[in-house]
Amino acid sequence: MNESILITGANIGLGKETARQLALKPETKKIILFCRNQAKAEEAKKDLEEQTGKKIFEIIIGDVSEANSVRKAVEKIKEPIDAVILNAGGMVGKTAAKITPSGMNELAATNILGHVILVDELIKHNKLRKTVLSVSAEAVPGVKALGMKPVAMKTSSVDEFAAVLDGSYFGNKFDVTQAYGYVKYVTSMWTLSMARKYPDIKFVVMSPGNTKGTLAPNNLPPPMKFMLKNFMMPIVFPLMGGMVHKLEVGAKRFVDGISDEQYKSGVFYASKEGKLSGDVVDQSTFFTSLKNTTFQDNANEAIHRFIK
Ligand SMILES: NC(=O)c1ccc[n+]([C@@H]2O[C@H](COP(=O)([O-])OP(=O)(O)OC[C@H]3O[C@@H](n4cnc5c(N)ncnc54)[C@H](OP(=O)(O)O)[C@@H]3O)[C@@H](O)[C@H]2O)c1
């Protein structure tokens, strides 16, 4: 049972809906909304209080793409937290390929850098009790219907993972819709590595599936955004079946991921092969690189090359 939960990117989309659902659980005593913008965070807090009738929300300001911002945020956390949901992220938009002071590009820094520092710091200061849920995506095994190929790294060496993080892996052709899957793969492998390193903490990876009602499509390249908003989401996916669901359903995967004992540490859960909605399954049953413990540890080591 998780009494206190921190959620990154909790002011909108899946993070906010997860906060709403968790607040309605009787055991929940505190939810920390970890957001980068004070005004947006205040607005979300007010709305969540109105929707749930609970005054259990606290705000911590931090930008997950900036190392020191996250370190400062952790200093403000005084009591140990039961569970952390590493949700902030997405495709970032036009600046995805831009190199940040860490040396990672913005896509990787947003989805990975601050989350890894957050967890490292919480563990170092004995402020994390039970569970870490990393948010990944079906983009890792690939989404054929959206032209997203499965992640296929040649060696999964530390150097190769580091090249994904600084973007050099993609050469001059940085296609964010492909790079996103690689970045979520690194996130997932880091989480699986941490599950072995810290057996007393549950480290689980969960994809929300293809979820309507978030701001994620706004960060897609214009042609894909147009196709997704006008054809795939309203027409094609509903006809195909098992390809899209409501915000409540996507967020419930995160709630279950931290609350339900059937979801085990060291497993990446997402939709069945070829699907984007419905039941979740262990992705390593068909995407077998996830089982490789050397690859997992290589991802962890590569990330730490960028953390000074
Ligand atoms: N929606 C889907 O179908 C889908 C599918 C698979 C995976 N996912 C994953 O689910 C997670 C949530 O996505 P979503 O669809 O809910 O997207 P969203 O509606 O765009 O919400 C993203 C959240 O992340 C925050 N964020 C972004 N960059 C940040 C930073 N540098 N520091 C702190 N917070 C930051 C945003 O804050 P601001 O409001 O300040 O920008 C916002 O609160 C992401 O990791 C995404 O990759 C989503």
Structure description:
This protein is α/β, with parallel strands linked by helices and about 300 residues long. It has nine helices and eight strands. It has an eight-stranded mixed β-sheet, with helices on both faces. The longest helix has 22 residues. The chain is globular and about 45 Å long. The chain starts with a strand and ends with a helix. NADP nicotinamide-adenine-dinucleotide phosphate (NAP) binds next to helix 1.
What secondary-structure arrangement, pairings included, does this model have?
Blueprint: E1 4-8, H1 13-23, E2 30-35, H2 38-52, E3 57-61, H3 67-75, E4 81-86, H4 106-124, E5 128-135, H5 158-166, H6 176-197, E6 202-206, H7 222-240, H8 247-259, E7 268-271, E8 280-282, H9 293-304
Parallel strand pairs: 1-2, 1-4, 2-3, 4-5, 5-6, 6-7
Antiparallel strand pairs: 7-8
Helix pairs in contact: 1-2, 1-8, 3-4, 4-6, 5-9, 6-9
This protein binds NADP nicotinamide-adenine-dinucleotide phosphate (NAP).
NADP nicotinamide-adenine-dinucleotide phosphate (NAP) binds next to α1.
Round the Cα radius of gyration to an integer and report it. 18 Å
CA-CA gap between termini: 35 Å
Helical coverage, percent range: 40-55%
- What assembly state would you assign to the polypeptide chains in this entry? single chain
Shape: globular
List key phrases describing it:
single chain; 8 strands; 308 residues; alpha/beta; 9 helices
Précis, in short:
This protein has helices at residues 13-23, 38-52, 67-75, 106-124, 158-166, 176-197, 222-240, 247-259, 293-304, and strands at residues 4-8, 30-35, 57-61, 81-86, 128-135, 202-206, 268-271, 280-282.
